Amino acid sequence: MKRRAFRDWTYWARPVPGWGDPGAKLVIVGLAPAAHGGNRTGRVFTGDRSGDFLYAALHRAGLANQARSESTDDGLVLRGVWVTLSARCAPPDNKPRPDELARCAPWLARELELLRPRVVLALGAIAWATMLGLLRARGFAVPRPSPAFAHGAEVALAGAPRLLGAYHVSQQNTQTGRLSPAMFDAVLRRAAELAF
């Protein structure tokens, strides 16, 4: 259902692709497009509060030319970064089902294969689990039980991109103080150190 503020918008309302610098060495993996963000605009983390938080952090880190992203033609350029999702469609209650994640996994796997990043920053436990599953499926020696998600967690596997974890940039985390700009900046700084 459209929000009143966007009643005149034609929603994208299709699977939302990843986007960014095709030469990216850092890939950021989120959960799924927001119903009135990426689902509306057609670009991941665009036109919503999560995107405001993420792109402001990328701008502070020198990885984006501007701090906001409102539409696909807003002039935002990412430098060395690709932003993508575990699930490509806006799920009910912002929680994709396992079958939805499984259907979207080949798209994420293909992006990683083409980009060959040095670092993947997983936003939240679902993106973390998705990445560990993809790495295991590609033959990397992911320990069992899988490494637990935590803000600032790191997993280094021979031949694989370094995996870092961060709390998701959702309002549920940023508005409650669970994730502050300083906390996210610290993980992003570590990701950039490893990637570049």
Description of the structure:
With 196 residues, the protein is of the alpha/beta class. The protein has one domain (17-195): Uracil-DNA Glycosylase, subunit E (3-Layer(aba) Sandwich). The protein has six helices and six strands; from the N terminus they run ββααβαβαββαα. The chain has a six-stranded mixed beta sheet, with helices on both faces. Strand 5 (154-155) and strand 6 form a beta hairpin. Helix 2 crosses helix 6 (181-195). The longest helix is centred in the middle third of the chain and has 18 residues, at 98-115. The radius of gyration is 16 Å and the shape is globular.
- Supply the number of helical segments: 6
| CATH fold descriptor | Uracil-DNA Glycosylase, subunit E
What is the SS-derived class?
alpha/beta
Query: What would you call the quaternary organization?
Result: single chain
Strand content: 5-15%
In spatial order, strands of the major sheet run 1-3-2-4-6-5
Kindly, what is the distance between the CA atoms of the first and last residues, rounded to a whole number of angstroms? 42 Å
